[in-house]
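User: My collaborator and I are trying to settle a disagreement about how two of our proteins should look. Neither of us wants to argue from intuition anymore, so we agreed to look at predicted structures for both before our next call. Could you fold the first one, then the second, and keep them clearly separated?

Assistant: That sounds like a sensible way to settle it. I'll keep them separate. The first protein:
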Amino acid sequence: MSHMLKFDLSSVGAEVGAPAPDRLISGNPEFRTWNLEGAGNLYAGIWEATPGKWRIVYDEWEYFHILFGHSIVTEEDGEPLHLKAGDSLVLRPGFKGTWEVVETTRKDYVIRL
């Protein structure tokens, strides 16, 4: 077994999803997720979403890096944070707010439960 993992989307199929109806604020966003690593309480992969806006609540810790697109993440009672290609962010457990995809956005991520 190798101790390296290249993020190769051709090695795994995408899971398709959407925000839960009770969290949807606007639009009709669709998610595609390529889970490339799942070991214990750690997950890594690629996530993509089409335009729309929904409420998010984090119980987990997540680091991500925007590969392309434009999204706006806003914490409750906070200022909007515009994210574009090259931006990185950590969302910590307890984060509550909204995610708005302005232009289809793709990110790579590492999540720790």
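The second protein, kept apart from the first:
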Amino acid sequence: MVERIRKRDTRALEEAIDAYGLALKALVTRILSGRGSAEDAEECVSDAFLAAWHDIDKYDGQRGSFRTWLYTIAKYKALDKRRQISRLTNAASLQEDTHIAGASAEQQAMSSETERELIDLIRKFGEPDRSLFWLRYFYYEELEQLAQLFGLTKKAVENRLYRCRVALRQALHMTEKGDGVNEE
């Protein structure tokens, strides 16, 4: 099938869609987890097959099966869509909350400042902790995949992520205390 797709055989692409379409849709639907519509899931699956068609030369059978490669493409399409939906939802929610609750500009600025602080703290993590943290909590990567990617055990990944969370909590708590001390 892969060789036929490389030769631009559209029948081979149709066969791939028939063989893997439902499984990819199930994966995408789980990732979107109720945030997106059925049309969003269909769009992600279509985008995944389109990307596979255009990028078939990037597929390396030595690194994994064609099925796994398609799953990976679909997963990242779904994660991108999830982030897009979340941004739109969060922006709408923030506007609504601001309008309804009358949140002050000061409260909004403090929230943005905390977010920037958090990102700055994550960027200061050493490797592989920084990459593990981003991949797990911003890209929803599975622990098993992270362990395999970084050559660690699942338990080692869990421990590293736990230490990262503790470090963030402590750093943010110290910043809050530090702010109060500076005001005295």
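Some points you might bring to the call about the second protein. The first helix runs from residue 2 to 6. Residues 96-103, 179-184 have pLDDT under 50 and may be disordered.
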